[in-house]
Design a protein that fits this description.
By secondary structure, the protein is mainly alpha-helical. 79% of the residues lie in helices and 0% in strands. The chain has helices at 2-29, 34-39, 45-55, 61-73, 88-123, 128-141, 145-159, 172-201, 204-211, 216-246, 248-254, 259-268, 272-300, 302-311. The longest helix has 36 residues, at 88-123.
Length: 313
């Protein structure tokens, strides 16, 4: 098993390099330069050129990319922000926990809501307990998170005044971001859990257990659910990684000072160190989450664990 983990960690290296090169290329092709954005329209061209020279923006593309990667991964220096002149890595470490809390809360909400309703929908197939959740799930899946967030802000913040509309501080600040980000994923978890459960309860061993007179509740919750939830766990892990990177719109909408908001501000200001370090952080974090889910899957499913033991990994 440990060999597999080491292999996966080494596989992250080309992924990070590829993602960083793509982002660096896109930022270099965008019209404009950081000197013009930082100094504003009142600056002279000489002042802009001087600032771009100080930032190293006037060097050739490959030279700038290699220099950045060398400083980031060899010297462990992600640079300083063009706009604030603060260390980028320090700012990311302050904001990353906020993004993780938002994503984890949304994922927990999606699992708590989606998985039980998906199981009930599968067990009560072709009844109102199946049709109604499926229809609602399809509706929620078609709505973007920022639209749900705007509706929540209008109702629960502006009209009712129950929750603050922006910022962080107490648990009340996380309620609406969690719901707006988690509802679309809850609908996905519901539909996927329903499909997985339907496939499981049609297996021969489930029919055999029922034929032997085992109580339906025992068959569903003790036998069928355990096997049906294995792929659901994998999908939930993948969704958690996507939630961390996909919370940018939600963080911006609710004014949450997370990593997503930090990257958006960096893009608007052409702040290359901020954008590069933020995207690399998301890439590494997503890869680690996928690796963790694979390891957990091996411990949950004895067949996968036996496979690793047989191959010596």
């Amino acid at each position: 098993m440990y060999r597999y983990v080491i292999k996966r960690i080494f596989m992250m290296v080309p992924i990070v390099i590829g993602v960083s090169f793509i982002i660096f290329t896109i930022l270099s092709l965008i019209p404009g330069d950081p000197g013009s954005i930082i100094l504003g329209p009142g600056a002279t061209q000489a002042e802009i050129n001087e600032l771009n020279h100080q930032l190293g923006y006037d060097r050739p593309f490959l030279q700038r990319y290699i220099s950045y990667m060398y400083h980031a991964f060899i010297l462990h220096d992600f640079g300083v922000s063009y706009a604030t002149r603060l260390p980028v890595f320090q700012q990311i470490m302050q904001r990353l926990p906020i993004s993780i809390i938002v994503a984890a809360s949304a994922m927990l909400f999606a699992i708590v809501v989606g998985v039980p309703i998906g199981i009930i929908s599968a067990v009560r197939q072709y009844t109102i307990l199946d049709y109604a959740p499926t229809a609602i799930a399809l509706l929620l899946a078609s709505l973007p998170a920022f639209l749900i967030g705007m509706v929540l802000m209008l109702v629960f913040s502006l009209w009712l005044g129950w929750f603050p509309s922006s910022g962080i501080g107490t648990w009340r600040h996380y309620v609406m971001p969690t719901i707006s980000l988690g509802l679309p994923y809850a609908s996905f978890q519901l539909r996927f859990t329903r499909s997985s459960m339907l496939e499981t309860i049609r297996q021969d061993y489930i029919r055999t257990a029922k034929a032997k007179g085992a109580p339906e509740r025992s068959v569903i919750w003790a036998h069928a659910m355990r096997n049906a939830l294995l792929p659901v766990i994998t999908v939930a892990g993948n969704n958690f990684g996507l939630l961390i990177g996909g919370a940018i719109a939600t963080e911006t909408l609710f004014g949450i000072p997370g990593l997503g908001t930090y990257i958006v501000n960096g893009i608007n200001q052409r702040d290359l160190p901020v954008v590069m370090a933020g995207i690399i952080t998301f890439t590494v974090l997503f890869s680690l989450i996928i690796l963790l889910i694979d390891v957990m899957y091996a411990f949950i499913d004895p067949r996968i664990k036996a496979k690793y033991a047989a191959t010596g990994d």
